[in-house]
Amino acid sequence: MSGIVIPNFGRGSGPVNQWSRPAFFAGPSGAQSPLPCANVYTKIALGYLDYDTDNCFDHVTYYRFTPNVPGWYYVYAAWGANLGASNRLLIQIYKNGSVAGNRARGSTINGGTYVNEDQAFIQYAVLMNGIDDYLELWYRLEPVGASRYGISNDGTYMGAWRIENFVPAIS
Question: What is the pTM of this model?
Answer without folding.
Answer: 0.77
